[in-house]
From TrEMBL, chain A:
Any Gene Ontology biological process: chemotaxis
Biological function: Involved in the transmission of sensory signals from the chemoreceptors to the flagellar motors. CheA is autophosphorylated; it can transfer its phosphate group to either CheB or CheY.
One MF term in the entry's GO annotations: ATP binding
Record's protein name: Chemotaxis protein CheA
EC number: 2.7.13.3
TrEMBL record, chain B:
Domain STAS residues, every copy: 1-109
Signal peptide, first to last residue: none
The organism's place on the tree of life at top rank: Bacteria
InterPro entries membership: MlaB-like_STAS, MlaB_ABC_Transporter, STAS_dom, STAS_dom_sf
Pfam families, sorted: STAS_2 (PF13466)
CDD domains: STAS_anti-anti-sigma_factors
Protein name as annotated: STAS domain-containing protein
Length: 729, 109
């Protein structure tokens, strides 16, 4: 659990601003969507509230003003248009900047004048002075707006700090012995009747006047410290013959609002319950309003509306209570479904589960040696359980990639405006899950690739139209699972890459010898070499030639790989292949030259025995004929440079591994079978070791290297006789 | 309840003795409005009013309204303490537009 409240604040702000941004971008399409507008409002409102708790005044001031404007949007006083969305996006950014400034600064109630100035500028743009335009919102003081409503309701100056009590006596009141005057006298004993208006407008013409009927109603300004229930109690006996409305004074409203704020959000309460709890309504009022609601089911008016309509309560209180209810709801819903857990603890758990896996394997080995059936059975059950626990523990860290993808909506929007291009972002496969640690590290490379595609890939609308393409370019982000790995694709329908230009550039930089023959694939791969950029002029976004090699390094650090494919004039596709998790895999244990190696099981296509006659050698290239298919292969023993005295057997075991569409063979000495493996990273010393992804501890206590099949395949396709460590023969 | 009648041309002088409550309201109504019909000015002496309740008050308000509607003058005079207390409670001392003589000891502190 997160313990530092400030950290929780940052996290909350982060999520809210994320939601706000996403809502704003969606509002570009549907500017009147009430849900989205509410999301905006909630973001600003909640940040304001929480910042207030911490005393982060600059944040409170700023978000308060923005909230006011958003509230105006919500109530339809102001329409949302594109310029306003742009300003609100900037406001969102500014809020983030404020939060950062406040947390980094020494005094949380102060931020730099520069930042304040920028905030003021934004606010000025947000609320321009209304120039003879009545539809323009009132620039400031959204509170005044609420107060105006109270004023209208009470028909009095809101500044008067009185209870406003309205009594409308029914015709039979007097006959039933209810004398309004006696109630007023009693009321006077609880406080001071500051003012009273006796309304006679219900008095009928003389002919219809029944002197025993009551036609009087009263409006009373009443000053008292008594609470609402006590005041209502005064009129307890008159209930049947009198319509009673008791509106709390303004100071009470503030008190109620404060009480509302203080209510715990741990449980969802009904609106009536909330209002009774803070004393703004009495149970009787709620019961009556509910009865009215039940009686008038056809119109389906919400309770809040009814209460305000009955003058039981001011609208601002109902709104705040509804807001509170909403907050509790989302809080409870979230709490019900999610628990925030410190990523470190989760990491710890997974490490421990890893150890558990290793020790289970050790136990299995020990039990097998003793060969006792009953123990075997227990071990098998434990192993199955540990397997489940492992899967569940890993699942805990799995997140959908969609959230990462949706961050790019803003990037695409901003950058395409900046570049004067029209670009649509199409996101698919957002529900694909992968390890959170992987997702986090994926952000930078993805950003770079997306920017690259927009900057270099997609052309300006004019150029596109000239090529007969639609003016609007499309950038596609896609993700899907494939044999234990996740594939992320960034595809654009832009100009594509020119292999000849890449080649020319690479030759100029000495990255490739002029006489070498390269397939288009190999040529494109040159993009990822350090110091190669195809854009002749560097723009502010990309094209300084420092990008793609860094991208590749980042991806490879995640045990992933990156491929690029392009058709001139049609577009470019970059595919990133990543492991699902960095911690534990199902492996296939093999032996070679007395050492043991683990091949990720998901990448094992099949195991076959081959005879010597099937293994062909052409020059320095090894191929094996597998059912008519020609596979390149390598001997693990030779690859790792192990010299062993054992003569080559007549028949050898070949493990066929698969990466994407490519298949290669690995010749090993022994096949040991499947096992669960905890990946332990190798130290920096082994940085240059090729074809190895990490190491693991076996049940026997031995160490086995985990093969990086991806890298092996690439090596095998590029070089006829690869070696784990170059220069060692 | 007693209504003393003293008719002097266009002015009708009345005095109410006893209570002005719901029990007397019907009688009062009959007497008062009939009299109002036949005069141009009505002076109502309230010094004998021992109790005034909502029904009585309502009657006075009605009388006032009818008088005004008919372009007649209604004067309430010699308010008793009971009448004064009600008018004070409702802050209607000014409503009827009549001067009131208020002994110091009537005032609620």
């Amino acid at each position: 659990m997160t313990n530092d409240p400030r950290e929780a604040f940052v996290q909350e702000v982060d999520e809210l601003l994320e939601a706000m941004e996403s809502a704003l971008l969606s509002l570009e399409e549907t500017p009147e969507d009430p849900e989205l507008l509410h999301t905006l409002f909630r973001a600003m409102h909640t940040i304001k509230g929480t910042a207030g708790v911490f005393g982060f005044d600059p944040i409170v001031d700023f978000t308060h003003r923005v909230e006011g404007v958003v509230d105006g949007l919500r109530s339809g006083e102001r329409a949302l248009d594109e310029p306003l969305i742009a300003i609100l996006l900037s406001c969102r950014d500014h809020t983030l900047a404020l939060v950062q400034a406040v947390l980094e600064g020494e005094d949380p109630s102060q931020v730099s004048a520069d930042l304040l100035g920028r905030g003021q500028q934004l606010l000025d743009r947000l609320c321009p002075e209304p120039v003879g335009d009545l539809t323009a919102p009132v620039a400031s003081a959204p509170d005044g707006y609420g107060a105006a409503k109270v004023e209208k309701l009470a028909g009095r100056e809101a500044a008067d700090d009185y209870w406003i009590i309205s009594l409308g006596f029914g015709p039979d009141a007097l006959r039933n012995g209810m004398d309004p005057l006696s109630f007023l006298r009693y009321l006077g004993s609880l406080g001071e009747i500051v003012d009273i208006a006796t309304r006679t407008d219900r008095l009928p013409p003389l002919a219809d006047f029944d002197p025993e009927s009551c036609y009087l109603s009263f409006q009373i300004g009443f000053q008292s410290d008594a609470d609402k229930a006590t005041i209502e109690g005064v009129f307890q006996f008159a209930e049947d013959d009198c319509e009673i409305d008791i509106l709390p004074p303004r100071s009470k409203i503030e008190e109620y609002l404060a009480l509302l704020d203080d209510l715990p959000e741990a449980q969802v309460q009904r609106l009536g319950e909330i209002l009774v709890k803070i004393g703004a309504l009495t149970e009787k009022e709620v019961a009556q309003a509910l009865a009215a609601q039940a009686a008038d089911q056809a119109s389906a008016r919400p309770l809040g509306e009814i209460l305000v309509g009955r003058h039981d309560i001011q609208r601002s209180i109902v709104e705040q209570a509804l807001d509170k209810q909403e907050k509790s709801k989302s809080r409870v819903a979230q709490e019900g479904r999610y628990i925030r857990v410190d990523a470190l603890r989760l990491g710890q758990l997974i490490t421990q589960v890893g150890e558990l896996v290793i020790n289970t394997a050790a136990m299995r080995v020990a039990v097998q040696r003793r060969d006792t059936d009953d123990l075997q059975e227990v071990v098998e059950r434990v192993e199955a359980l540990v397997g489940d626990i492992r899967d569940n523990a890993l699942q805990l860290r799995m997140v959908q990639i969609g959230e990462t993808f949706s961050r790019f909506r803003r990037v695409v929007r901003d950058v395409s405006k900046e570049l004067g291009k029209e670009i649509d972002l199409v996101v698919t496969g957002g529900e694909t899950e992968l390890d959170k640690t992987v997702v986090e590290k994926l952000n930078d490379p993805l950003t770079h690739l997306v920017r690259n595609a927009m900057d270099h890939g997609i052309e300006t609308p004019q150029e596109r139209l000239a090529c007969g393409k639609p003016a609007k370019g499309t950038l596609q982000l896609n993700a899907y699972h494939d044999s234990g790995r996740i594939l992320v694709e960034i595809r654009d329908d832009g100009a594509g890459l020119d292999p000849q230009r890449i080649r020319a550039k690479a030759e100029a930089r000495g990255l490739v010898e002029p006489e070498r023959n390269l397939t288009p694939q190999e040529t494109f791969r040159l993009i990822f070499e350090p110091g190669l950029s195809t854009k002749d002029e560097a723009s502010s976004l990309s094209g300084r030639g420092v990008g793609m090699d860094v991208v590749r390094r980042n991806i490879e650090a995640l045990r992933g790989s990156i491929e690029l494919d392009s058709q001139p004039g049609q577009g470019t596709k970059v595919s990133i292949s990543l492991p699902l998790t960095l911690a534990i895999i199902d492996g296939f244990l093999v032996g070679a030259g007395g050492e043991q190696y683990v091949i990720p099981l998901a990448q094992v296509a099949e195991c076959v025995e081959i005879g010597r006659e099937q293994a062909l050698t052409h020059g320095d290239r090894h191929h094996v004929n597998l059912r008519g298919e020609v596979l390149p292969y390598l001997r693990l023993k030779e690859f790792f440079g192990i010299r062993s005295g054992a003569a080559r057997k007549l028949r050898e075991s070949l493990v066929v591994v698969r990466v994407g569409h490519a298949k290669v063979g690995l010749i090993v000495d022994e096949l040991h079978g499947e096992l669960q493996t905890v990946i332990k990273p190798l130290g920096r010393v082994f940085e240059n070791l090729k074809g190895v992804a990490g190491a693991t501890v076996l049940g026997t206590g031995d160490i086995a290297l985990i093969l990086d099949v991806q890298q092996l395949t690439a090596l095998l396709q590029a070089h006829p006789q690869p070696q784990a460590v170059s220069g060692r023969h | 309840m007693t209504i003393h009648l003293e008719e002097d041309g266009e002015t009708c002088r009345l005095a109410i003795e006893g209570e002005m409550s719901i029990y007397e309201a019907a009688d009062h109504k009959n007497g008062l409005f009939e009299r109002l019909e036949g005069c141009r000015e009505m002076v109502l002496d309230l010094s004998g009013v021992g109790e005034l309740d909502s029904a009585g008050l309502q009657l006075l308000l009605m009388l006032k309204r009818e008088a005004e509607a008919g372009g007649k003058r209604l004067q309430l005079v010699n308010h008793s303490q009971a009448v004064y207390a009600v008018l004070e409670l409702l802050k209607m001392e000014q409503h009827f537009g009549d001067p009131m003589v208020i002994p110091a000891e009537w005032r609620t502190p």
